[in-house]
């Protein structure tokens, strides 16, 4: 049986693309001294709705221990805060602070510039196609 080059596997290609995307994104937001995970958390919380840790973990693609560690770091920097849910005092919600909103506004410019570079390289049509293919892939994997 002939050996298949690893680069022919979809899992490898997705991992490689993810790695390159993350490295580029990390470079673009490095000046703010935040990680990609911090950016995702701040971006989700920027709607100022507040989120439970469970909801937030799902939205930002982190497991609970990793989310807790990241939230602790963001709290210590004054970018987010925890507060009891007014409807259920046993439940804790995470909210973005004013400083967090200022930070996410600056991060948005850097992240948008990073994505613009990628779109320039691929072109708008291929970028749109890639997004649709990835959304379909994600939906199909969740359905199965």
Automatic annotation (TrEMBL):
Pfam families membership: MarR_2
InterPro entries reported for this sequence: HTH_MarR-typ, MarR/SlyA-like, WH-like_DNA-bd_sf, WH_DNA-bd_sf
Domain HTH marR-type residue range list: 7-139
Sorted UniProt keywords: DNA-binding, Transcription, Transcription regulation
GO molecular function, one term: DNA binding
GO BP term, pick one: response to stress
Domain of life: Bacteria
Name of the protein described by the UniProt record: Transcriptional regulator SlyA
Taxon lineage: Bacteria, Pseudomonadati, Pseudomonadota, Betaproteobacteria, Burkholderiales
Name of encoding gene: slyA1
């Amino acid at each position: 049986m002939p050996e298949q080059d690893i680069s022919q596997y979809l899992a490898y290609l997705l991992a490689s693309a993810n790695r390159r995307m993350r490295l580029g994104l990390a470079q673009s937001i490095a000046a703010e001294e935040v990680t990609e995970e911090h950016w995702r958390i701040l971006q989700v919380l920027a709607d100022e709705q507040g989120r439970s840790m469970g909801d937030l973990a799902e939205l930002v693609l982190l497991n609970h221990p990793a989310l807790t560690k990241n939230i602790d770091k963001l709290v210590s920097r004054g970018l987010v805060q925890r507060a009891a849910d007014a409807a259920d005092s046993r439940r804790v919600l995470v909210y973005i602070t004013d400083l967090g909103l200022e930070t996410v506004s600056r991060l948005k410019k850097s992240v948008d510039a990073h994505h613009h570079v990628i779109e320039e390289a691929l072109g708008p049509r291929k970028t749109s196609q890639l997004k649709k293919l990835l959304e379909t892939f994600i939906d199909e994997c969740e359905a199965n």
